[in-house]
UniProtKB/TrEMBL annotation:
Residues 30-57 are annotated as: Disordered. InterPro entries: Beta-barrel_TonB (IPR000531), Beta-barrel_TonB_sf (IPR036942), Plug_dom (IPR012910), TonB-dep_rcpt-like (IPR039426). This is Iron complex outermembrane recepter protein. The lineage of its organism: Bacteria, Pseudomonadati, Pseudomonadota, Alphaproteobacteria, Sphingomonadales. Residues 73-181 form the TonB-dependent receptor plug domain. Residues 30-56 have a biased composition (Low complexity). It is found in: Cell outer membrane.
């Protein structure tokens, strides 16, 4: 570990001791929901929130459900960042991509796609967008697990709040929460007449329409309708072939990054009695976009595209290399067989939650069904030459059923449940290189079962300040795959090739929390998590397609403190974690008599340590300051890149894992007079540099590290809000905003295609400065 890391750990240890000691006398609490108290469904269904005049990140007392019951965020011994509905609305956050950098040690990457995100939490991320692979961090919407990363960047109407849980959540959330989970909670019907209407414009032809309507209750029924439409042009223009003597097709689109989104939501609450509630939600989302493809920025010296190399194949690809930072032009033309560049995803989700209160116990049933259709056509080489292209077609559906029981019995709080999950996907992901098409067909499905229980016990000692938690989950799942593949008309995987495998495992949790005062607690936690095993659904040989890989597991230790100081004007949350990853899933090369094939194996293990700090302060009325920082030290201990080969752990880097992620925000009230309030606010975000290619080498003499290393990035977003302006029976708010105020330029992703394809390098960059104006009416 570096000397910088050692000093950082010492500083954190001192802070963990100093914060409680500095304010032992503080004992005031203003929690809206006491720890463990579960609000009734009637209390949970609040009318639309008052129009936000100020919305700093994490402001106020926030009720979260990180442990499957309602608790005040400051009382939960879990590293969690929560974003209120007001904070999300004023920042136009409608999906998880906008959370990038706003929580410590959380990185959200759109690598050449507007429909799929890579969610990295505490150093763990799944970097293959193929839907056959499982995410390392799970996403939930109203308690419903979202099975694939594809479609995770869609807009969602009527978000009430978002919780970002860091660290393994294997006991209460289960599979694929190795790194953590993002829980999106939507607003429930209030039964009172009210609504909102919002319209916005901006540069790059940005347009936005968004609205919601709460209908008055009729009998035991309450209904909310919500919808949104947004449209914006991309900033990269496609250009005709600039080399007229070389024939090539014309561009199939005008720009990269064009994005049109639709979302609709119907929420119905049926409450036949004070103890029984049913909540139904139907959600529709559709996204049409042109992909943000990487721009060609380099070819490998001595490779097949280097005119000075003996291996030169006569293709003048170097004529299309762009050397400037954040190029505005793109010379690629089409996808497989010249198809129009395109990305599109469409989802339908139906969920029904039934809640029955029996004394101090709550019984809950969560049933959900979700369908997803995904299509894309990509140009990979960034030139008008028909060298490399890819496409994806996916038809996916999932069903889940969960039964929960929770409540209080004496000194015990308990949560227990049974869980079932099924999914099925049909995919075709062809690739085309030098005119030869590789067709890759896969039908995959999963049957997963789990049982879990967790108990919080307050022993009759230490004035009831100590709480001990123990939890356990047993999971079992069966994965099946049906494959077929052809290359250039030759069958590489016979159609009908089948394989199946059953995996099982347990994920315990143990926590000890001690309240130093009513406002300060410390905790220590041990937890385990796993990422599901499976089959490589994008493999191109029989061996690699039927060879299963095992689940990846993590053993995690976390220590932390949460403090509310100075009568609630200062909040400080600190956490340190030590994660040991075993059976890490990696892509390796296996030598065979026919050459090398790619396999997904468990031939790696690693140690990931880090710490996180979140601070919020209200030094004077009308000024709210908040900041967070996260540090991650990720090192492979074993990494076998070739089956039977040497351990190359010292020369391998983690993808999308910067050492530092930090952000800060300030919100100041400039004017408050009668019904008018004006606020000026800003968000500053810093992300350190990282390797953008999975398992990039970190050897300093290897040129690949320079082609796939991103830049550190510092961006400033600002906004001014005039709110609570009375108009008729409602109020109006006007928001002017700018993102990336200083037009910072930085690489966000990069791919080196390797020696077999001439080491060509493509890169993605962040968006330039954008700005706009939103007007909302609330009644």
């Amino acid at each position: 570990m570096s000397s910088t890391s050692i000093h950082a750990w010492r500083a954190l240890a001192g802070a963990l001791l100093a914060i409680p000691a500095a304010a032992t006398a503080q004992s005031t609490t203003d929690a809206t929901v006491a720890a463990g108290d579960t609000p009734s469904p009637a209390e949970a269904a609040a009318p639309p929130a008052a129009e936000p005049a100020t919305a700093p990140l994490g402001t106020g007392d926030i009720v979260v459900t990180a442990r499957r019951r309602a608790e005040n965020l400051q009382d939960v011994p879990v590293a969690i960042t929560a974003f209120t509905g007001a904070a999300l609305e004023v920042r136009n956050i409608r999906d998880i991509t906008a959370l990038d950098g706003l929580a410590p040690n959380v990185k959200v990457v759109e690598s050449g796609s507007n429909t799929t995100t890579y969610l990295q939490i505490r150093g763990s991320v799944t970097t293959n967008p193929n839907p056959g692979y499982e995410p390392a961090a799970a996403m939930y919407i109203d308690g419903v697990y979202i099975g694939k990363a594809v479609g995770s960047s869609i807009d969602i109407a009527e978000i009430d709040h978002i919780e970002v849980l860091r660290g393994p959540q294997g006991t209460l959330f289960g599979r694929n929460t190795l790194a953590g989970a993002v829980s999106i909670v939507t607003r429930k019907p209030s039964g009172e007449l009210g609504g909102t209407l919002k319209a916005g414009i901006g540069n790059y032809d940005r347009r936005l329409l968004q609205g919601s309507l709460d209908l008055p209750a009729f009998g035991p029924f309450s209904v909310t309708l919500a919808g949104l439409w947004s449209d914006q042009n991309g900033y990269i223009r496609t250009r005709a072939n600039p080399v007229p003597q070389i024939p090539g097709p014309a561009p199939t689109v005008k720009r990269l990054g064009d994005k049109t989104s639709y979302a609709g939501r119907l929420a119905v609450r049926f409450r036949p009695s004070d103890t029984l509630t049913f909540d139904y939600s139907g959600d529709y989302s559709r996204l049409k976009t042109t992909p943000m493809l990487g721009v060609l920025q380099g070819i490998g010296a001595g490779g097949i595209f280097d005119p000075a190399s003996p291996a030169y194949v006569g293709v003048p690809l170097g004529l299309y290399v762009q050397t400037e930072r954040r190029p505005r032009d793109y010379y690629g033309t089409g996808g497989v067989d010249g198809a129009k560049l395109f990305e599109g995803v469409k989802t339908w989700t139906h969920a029904l939650t039934g809640t029955l209160e029996v004394g101090e116990a709550t019984l809950k049933s969560i049933t959900a069904y979700r369908t997803l259709k995904w299509k894309q056509q990509l140009d990979l080489d960034g030139s008008p030459l028909p060298l490399a292209a890819a496409a994806s077609n996916l038809d996916y559906k999932q069903f889940s059923q969960e039964l929960q029981a929770s409540g209080k019995a004496g000194r015990l709080f308990y949560t227990a449940g049974l869980y079932y999950f099924y999914d099925d996907g049909d995919s075709n992901n062809p690739q085309q290189f030098f005119g030869t098409t590789l067709e890759r067909l896969a039908d995959f499905n999963t049957d997963a079962y789990a049982a879990y229980a967790q108990v919080d016990w307050t022993p009759p000692i230490l004035n009831d300040k100590l709480v001990l938690t123990a939890g356990y989950r047993y999971s079992k799942e069966k994965k099946r795959v049906l494959r077929g593949a052809t290359a250039g008309g030759f069958t590489t995987i016979p159609f009908g090739t089948r394989a199946s495998r059953t995996f099982s495992g347990s994920t315990p949790t143990f926590v000890a929390k001690y309240d130093l005062t009513d406002d300060i607690n410390i905790y220590a936690k041990y937890s385990e998590g796993f990422k599901s095993g499976g089959f490589a659904t994008d493999a191109s040989t029989v061996q690699s397609s039927i060879t299963p890989y095992d689940p990846e597991t993590v053993d995690s230790i976390e220590i932390g403190t949460k403090a509310r100081l100075l009568d609630g004007r200062l909040r400080v949350n600190l956490a340190a974690f030590f994660d040991k990853h075993k059976d890490q899933q990696i892509a390796v090369f296996q030598p065979t008599s026919a050459g090398f094939v790619t396999l997904v194996t468990n031939d790696a293990r690693s140690q990931i340590n880090g710490f996180e700090a979140e601070v919020q302060a209200t030094p004077v009325d009308g000024l709210v300051l908040s900041a967070n920082a996260g540090y991650t030290d990720a090192e492979f201990r074993e990494f076998f890149a070739v089956v039977g080969g040497p351990n190359v752990a010292r020369d391998r880097a983690f993808a999308f894992v910067p050492k530092w992620i930090a952000s800060g925000s300030a919100d100041i009230t400039l004017l408050k007079h009668d019904d008018l309030q004006i606020n000026l606010a800003g968000d500053l975000k810093y992300t350190g540099r990282y390797a953008a290619l999975p398992y990039s080498t970190v050897a300093t003499d290897d040129p690949n590290i320079f082609s796939t290393q991103t830049d550190s990035q510092t961006t400033l977003d600002a906004r001014i809000v005039a709110s609570r302006i009375p108009v008729g029976s409602g109020t109006i708010a006007v928001t002017g905003f700018v993102r990336n105020l200083f037009n910072e330029v930085s690489r966000t992703a990069g791919i080196d295609f390797g020696q077999a394809f001439g080491n060509i390098v493509t890169r993605n960059y962040n968006w330039p400065r954008t700005y706009g104006l939103d007007v909302s009416f609330r009644f």
